[in-house]
Amino acid sequence: MDPGKVDGGLARTGIAGLDDILVGGLTPNRLYLIEGRPGTGKTTLALDFLLEGARIGDKGLYVTLSETEYELRAVAATHGWSLDALELVELVAEDGLDPEFEQTLLHPSDVELGETVRGVMERVEALRPERVVLDSLSELRLLSQNPLRYRRQILALKHFFSKLNCTVLMLDDRTADAGDLQLHSIAHGVVTLEQTAIDFGAERRRLRVMKFRGRKFRGGYHDYRIETGGLRVYPRLVASEHGVSFAPAPVSTGVAELDRLLGGGLVPGTTTLLSGPAGVGKTTTTVQCMVAALERGDRAAYFLFDERMPTLLSRTAALGIDLVRFIEAGRLLIRQVDPAELSPGEFAGTVREAVEEFGAGTVLIDSLNGYLQAMPNDKYLTLQMHELLAYLSERGVVTLMILGQHGTVGDLRTDVDLSYLADTVLLLRYFEADGRVRKSISVMKTRTTDHERTIREFRVGPGGVVIGEPLTGFRGVLTGLPEYRADGQTLMESDRERRPLG
């Protein structure tokens, strides 16, 4: 089968994410409208489309009514592309601007519109291309001067292209009235590109397939970026489309006492949330679980929102946990997420790549607070996170999330309560006993196992997390204000000593 075609003879656009949204690609020999304001990436999308055609042997023609050939080649050069395989046509030619060519018997638009349309048809008939781009319709709209004339010209071009079996992209910069949908009714399919500036950080871009006759497509908005090499589109995630079979048997966290707390370990296809105040040991506990998976030969992906990667590597190394060896072995992928530079769709797409291409069986998100703060202007973040976690569950991934709480003891609060999204919730707390600040860990819920309902003391030291016996002599540990209730309760030894209370 032709690599540029899919089953049914559809034509690929050269943009993998867009082809996914279109469920394969474009129906050949049809006219499509690509609309969006300047800067949304219409030209880049169009060049992607023509170059994909050139790759499989289709002739491509780019007719520009607004940009010069030099400008088009400059745009292509920024992406590392050569346009030598394409035919580039500028209309109107430079001599059309010479005063000696002006006439006064007819209105200029009458002459220029006819000459422009004829110029397009002549070039298409001479080259007989399979793919054509017309950029942009705003020039034809201005020359037409009234909607009826404009519609007739577009219909004439549509019929002309269909006779020659051309797949055509018409670009429009949306300078017309927002309520003018004439082109929508004429085109076989319509793709709208949008760009939004936020208060802080990079602009957000998203696209939507408004219409696609006779074909199923993925509706709604899909995030995309303009990168070196073309458009990168991130189809909206639908978890139910990605299910695979997997073994649901629990896997060890690497700490026997933590396995007992969890009722056997971490279950593939579930999400575990670690919640607690700053510095209590959430990241270290999470890393310990990840290292256990890596030592079993699995792969893992770690998404850092809150700290820099060198900081993570140095502080885990100080605990005797060497993450560098797993990175060098190609089993650990750490992605540092720059705040305000990532859209929710791009993040979901990055996680998908880690799971489907890298093969990660364990995914860490550190932290949900950073995720919310990195995308403050985006709506429905919780809903999108829910869909992402459902996707990871369908893929049988062990997912670990960290949620920081405000405060140290007493009434602790979070930016948002996402505990309902998790299958398992681990609660980490500080408490004071015998004049020392200590830490406790407990499992608040699991949906898959019969977990231990005790509260255990733990500490972080060389080698990672060490968990002690259940605390039976205290009440109120989880509130951060414990009350000693029994004689002879022995706590874990510190780095220097082990002391009984009493």
Q: Your description of this structure?
A:
The protein is elongated and about 95 Å long. It has helices at residues 16-21, 42-55, 69-78, 108-127, 137-144, 147-163, 182-186, 256-262, 282-295, 309-318, 324-328, 344-356, 368-374, 381-394, and strands at residues 5-6, 10-11, 31-36, 60-64, 87-90, 131-135, 167-172, 189-196, 204-212, 221-227, 230-234, 271-277, 300-304, 332-336, 362-366, 398-405, 424-433, 436-446, 455-461, 464-470, 474-475, 483-484. It folds into two domains: 5-236, Rossmann fold (3-Layer(aba) Sandwich), CATH 3.40.50; 241-427, 3-Layer(aba) Sandwich (Rossmann fold). The longest helix is centred in the first third of the chain and has 20 residues, at 108-127. The strands form four sheets. A nine-stranded mixed beta sheet has the order 5-4-6-7-3-8-9-10-11, sandwiched between helices. It has a nine-stranded mixed beta sheet with strand order 14-13-15-16-12-17-18-19-20, with helices on both faces. A two-stranded antiparallel ribbon has the order 1-2. The model is unreliable at 93-108 and 496-502 (pLDDT under 50). The chain is α/β, with parallel strands linked by helices and 502 residues long. Helix 5 packs across helix 6 and helix 12 runs parallel beside helix 14.
